[in-house]
Batch of 2 targets.
Target 1
Amino acid sequence: MNLTLFVVVLLTAIFLVVAALGIARLISPRTFNRQKGEAYECGIPTRGSSWMQFKVGYYLFAILFLLFDVETVLLFPWAVIARELGSAGLISISFFIAILVLGLAYAWKKGALEWK
Amino acid sequence: MFDFSIITQWIDQLLRGLMPDAAATVVECVLVGLALLLGYAVIALALIYVERKVCAWFQCRLGPNRVGPFGILQSVADMLKMLTKEIIEIKHVDRFLFGLAPYIVIIASVAAFSCLPFARGLQVLDFNVGIFFLVAVSSIGIVGILLAGWASNNKYSLIGAMRSGAQMISYELSIGLSILTMVVLSGTLQVTELVEGQADGWFLFKGHLPALIAFVIYLVAGTAETNRGPFDLPEADSELTAGYHTEYSGMHFGFFYLAEYLNMFIVAGVATTLFLGGWMPLHVPGWEGFNEVMDYIPSLFWFLGKVGVMIFVIMWFKWTFPRLRIDQLLRLEWKYLLPINLLNLLLMVIVVVYKLHF
């Protein structure tokens, strides 16, 4: 089982960040200046917070992504045995993909793929 | 051909001879971790140097040439400088998420990096669902980028992260589907088996037309996935300063920088594994002498050489095409690449079922 190795990889990644940050904090200089803590924007004091409601366009694409990504996950096990399934598998998966393409066409027609 | 598992098995037996089994396992884990870190750091530094040199040549400049011979120590010097820079504490950020974001980005890229088959027997993680795992784990990086932009409480960061999120999740689909196309051809998800299946010909040649389409789509989507080249609007410096990592300083910023270059390596590595035969040498049917000679070149050089070519192509894109607008970017993915990809998948199934491939 490769689980041990996976844990080793995760720990290695965390170790990389912790070690590099630790070294940086040890040897880097520290100076204090009130303006250093301000947001880096245009030079003038920033107005309001950035934690606000944001453009809905991104949300639409995220939903579409979710649908198609779940579909990709469903297709992976089929793809492994596509060769053994032969033409019967080909016909059934054509129906599946046809429904997907219909869904994409519906989103297209509804204007969900337009950036406004 | 030389097999790296000879070395690893030798080390394993040596350690088990010296100490009890449990201690040997721990030492081996530490060794694997160190090797991984070394490879990660060396490849990132080398890529930063290569990027600067290639970029300079495209613009008729010399590039870094002062630190060490031909400037090869430039990126080492830059990394040391970055380590000695202060990590500035910003007042308005969400401190926890701000600190968490680099961890997620680095974990995603290290985990994906460890799935790549560098040579025969030289691979850290080899699951039976390897390539699926690689796709899954590398998309976790998006979460890190979104967190970084949101936690920074900075308008540039927020816009950069949102653009980056929209772009990366959109092109994730094309990457997934083109990988799926190749899985249909190979019939396996395990990375070593994928490479072994290309011993008598690379998938790019075996799968002819659908594989070629999938390859082109993978390259375009992979370039978009790394936030590079014509698709660099998340960090379009003329509009957004630095995008989602505007507020990060010193080594904090260094992690995003490292992960970005490593992601380019991973994209090129997956392209090599799936389409260009991984570490398999180039064989031409019928040319026995030529094939013999090609077998003498170690598999590690084959892999790194092919990845190098792919990375050069990705860098070439950056200096050839102008930056896209966000609506053009999303239109390219959703109205062109995705439908073509779905049809290409069907085409590949037809080719595989009726045995039209080589």
Note: Residues 21-58 of chain B form the longest helix (38 residues).
Target 2
Amino acid sequence: MLRQLEGSKAIAETVALCRPEVVCAYPISPQTHIIEAIGVKVKEGSLAPCEYINVESEFAAMSVSIGASAAGARAYTATASQGLLFMIEAVYNAAGLGLPIVMTLANRAIGAPINIWNDHSDAMAVRDSGWIQLFAETNQEAADLHVQAFRLAEELSVPVMVCMDGFILTHAVEGVDLMDQATVDRFLPAYEPRQVLDPEDPVSIGAMVGPEAFEEVRYLAHLRQLDALDYIPVIAEEFTALTGRPSGGLIHPYRTEDADTIVVALGSVLGTIKDAVDHLRDNGERVGVLGITSFRPFPIEAVRSALANASRVIVVEKAFSLGMGGVLATDVSMATLGSSAVLNTVIAGLGGRPIAQHSIEAMIARAIRGELESLTFLDLDEGIIERERARMARTRRSGPFAENVLRDLRQNREDRS
Amino acid sequence: MERPFAITLDVGTSRANHTGSWRVERPVYVDRLPPCNDACPAGENIQGWLYEAESGGYEAAWRKLVENNPLPAIMGRVCFHPCESACNRVQVDEAVGINAVERFLGDTAIEHGWSLPPAGPDTGKRVLVVGAGPAGLGAAYHLRLLGHQVRLVDSSPKLGGMLRYGIPAYRLPRAILDAEIARITDMGVEVIVNHTVHDIDVERHEGGFDAVFLAVGAQLGKRVNIPAGDSSKVIDAVSFLHQVADEDPPMLGRRVVVYGGGDTALDAARTARRLGATDAVIVYRRNRDKMPAHAEEVEQALGEGVTVRWLSTVERFEHERLVLEKMRLNADGFPEPTGEYEELDADSLVLALGQDTDLSLLEGNDNVEVRDGVVQVATTMMTNEGGVFAGGDAAPSDRTATVAVGHGKRAARGIDAYLRNVDFVSGDRHDLATADHLNTWYYADAPRTERPELERIRRQTNFEEVIGGLTEENALFEARRCLSCGNCFECDNCFGVCPDNAVIKLGGEVKYEFNYDFCKGCGICVRECPCGAIEMIPELI
Amino acid sequence: MSEQRVHFYQVGSFAVGNRLLSADDRTVQSSPHRTNSIDSGHRACQGCGEALGARYALDAAMRATNGQLLAVNATGCLEVFSTPYPETSWRIPWLHSLFGNAPAVATGVAAAMRVKGRSDVRVVGQAGDGGTVDIGFGTLSGMFERNDDVLFICYDNEGYMNTGVQRSAATPPAARTATTDVVGAEPGNSFGQGKDLPRIAMAHDIPYVATATVADLHDLERKVERAMSFRGARYLHVFVPCPLGWGSATNETIHLARLAKETGLFPVFEAEHGVVTNVSRIRRLAPVEEYLKLQRRYAHLFGAKGRPDIVARLQAIADANIARYGLAPERDELDNREDA
């Protein structure tokens, strides 16, 4: 039944249906509404048995999840941005220990400058941690991905992070078809850990591994990620069969069959891009979109075949590696290796900058004309950049440029009025 | 459960890692000689019998005790316990009251009628023991244990020697004496009393004895030439005490002066008090520090009203008046005359100036060497003549009952070796468990249990025993004060303090064992062993 | 001395075992059937106090919980020397996650047990002093504040020994470490304000806080037992000398722990719900020199170029502890007799 729900609320409802046994909460925008809603459920008793623990930091949130998971409980937490960075040591640790924790990442920019709005810098910061990272395009998919995430995590004994755009999804109210408990239970069996702390069968978990075996341990973890590449489509199909919804899977191609130009992206921006593509298609351009759901493991073969016939690939991403360029684009380039397709990287929407359909359309048009630089920043205010660079060149004590930019913007606005 | 590779490990797998290879020194269990055992003239395994007593195993303790000394009830009263002087417990608080526990065990044995072990299988050898004092009794006991036949002869009407005729009943009740002597004679000792041996060679050959043990004691009181008027009553202490023991005490009057500074002097003075003397005065030429008598005996005597004239010698005795010369100690601590005199009223003078041995039975024998008034013996207690042994006060010794009992044991073993025609082998002596081997932290402070003393006023007038015994509770407590120097008493410290679990607790006789597969040689077990029963030795590489 | 008044049993209440005691009154460690939670073959240095302390505490916890125990371990010596692949020394279920998160991980384990209705299974978290007073402090305080059902044990050897003897917030003043070398006007660690974790724990009003040393096993085991009788957050701070880091002889480990208590430098006490309920009074008062001189980390305080002024300041710390907790020896310690 379709309900008008805030994204966070949809996630909370769905996570609750997954019967988590230990939920850790530490507030950080824009994740707060999720954990608040779960907290109510535990406190009122509608989610039981479940231990809801208000911890003192994200580091503790992930650590408590580690303990709970290692002791055989289904563990869940949610975070964003700085919170993810604060727990990053534990994030790596959870993956290293193979603990099937599920975490929602309400994607948000990373400071400084402090910024609470959406981009994907946080997710990219932990892409090598060993977690499976699934990106949701819509609130419906975000909700559905959580059900699949628990199944995936526990089947493979790997933690899974469901990435959903902060505010854009978490705070957006839209129609979501929530699953019922029986369906979730049918899809998601009770957690049966691969290893567990048990007085009747004692083991030592978390040994120190030296040079003699460390590489093998890492390689085995990599193989587990490759297993996930096989398994993700399987459970997505199963999910679709159960619900009728095409949520999950490795990739979501859209009008790519005959496309010369394919735009690749993660998350909610795919909606805007699809609108742009539809419009360009109306104008006769052969453009398509490739949404990547599974960023880690990266479905390199699926991406390769989806892009096989394109002569131009544009990667639009909400994060970038300073001094280098696109993060997703780098991965995509591995999939297009050997092809003659031109690859453009477009950094867009950092720190919550709106990504307008017309900007996307203009950018694609330029790309088709061959005018797009290989690394482009969408809607960059060149004037600000030039003025700040000039200021920095004039004096060593030019001040913090974030503040300078704000002052410049204010000045410009006043000048205009 | 399928374990994730390397990160998750099966328990206990580290036992594959033999950390013993790190070691450069290894701990080993040792038995060190406790200082009490070392000091005991009777060679008792004191720590050993205290160990049994600690757990309330009094009979086992007593049996361990009488392996070396068959007279614990007696020794528990008359021994001057050099063991306690040597006791390491003074490092914690006070010496263990070994003597009191010994007496408790001895009394308990009498009370329960425990018998000594049966005599050993008959060897067919016959031994004559001359003198039934502590040396003779000790020898007879050990000889019987070894299976030799024993004839014990004594010139007095009753057995016991100086135990009976030298030690007053208030220190050693006769019932106790009789009970412990009877236990020995019950082992099948042929006893002949009122029999004085005049010629040892004759006696030996007529009786067909394979060996002889001379334990005739030192029964002759030393006399010095003190000018005394005819009416003056002068008697030696040995005779005095002997007569008292025979219940025929001499009349000494109300004012008795005892001349001498040894334990016998004190015995004489205290006995005089009990016989009705109002003044019992000891005259001694040196001061209290130099007095050879045992301090606690002095303390008791003073408590009973005995007085002492320190730094005085008896110059002459006439007309119920003693003339004393005052002395002073020179730089070396020796007394020298001052030429000053003083007088002291006295009805009688008891001379307690030491004893001599009556060795007339050796007059016909040229082989046995007599020097300084005593019979010279080898470590086996054998004289220069084969088969003739001597011990106790008749041989060179400190002349205490305990030394005599020790001589008896040693002589018995010497005689046994002689009769079997084997070399006398003395057991190996372990290293001494000196105080620096102990970790006294572990011993809870617990002051010794003083034995109750009879009220002073009562004891001055009768011959009831002055010092009472310990109750069982007290004896147990006192036994548990033993530090068990140098000998494991199963405190589990080594087992507990090893960071590598490299001590195996076995229980039983072996108690513990080191697991050298894992012992890293840190030495904590040695450091924390309360009693010094472990030592580190270099690892042989 | 232990709170328990004992009859006189030759070695009183200080030795590990005693053949004269009834089996119930003996320490866990005296039993050949003890768990040996940490087994032989571990790679701790010779004379390691932490290996000893961990076995003491966990074996006692195993007895108190009837074997229903799960342990969480912070990174550090204890973790490294016990579980180098492919061997583990642990005989109990054991989880190591990170350096600074053991309290939180323990919270998670406890939550899992609660949610599964396994109230019989108890959780111990453990770390060295670095993992407790420094990097793990935040998660520990959080665990305390929530009153999670975890006994957290700090094995305090006063520094980062695993990484090569660096200073922690538990390193005492004047002590030499690799990051507080004996150079300059104030050789060794500076005289800071200290970070007294037992008192900080007490400030959380958690049900039980106690300190102990490896030198008094009966006391330590009793405290573990007591700790296990409570639900909620409990803290046990165990003093464990480190021969390597302190430059002490390997056989002095227990002796040093004893001296730390007998000098007053390490107060041994327990507190319930934020209130001190029991102190272990000093039995044989010792000057701090006696303790300090056995350790090379204090060697610069003695000898020709010694610093009696600094020794006096350390003595003042001990004296302040004695005054704060009332540790002065009892006038008459000879009271065992009354019960015998």
Note: The mean pLDDT of chain B is 92.
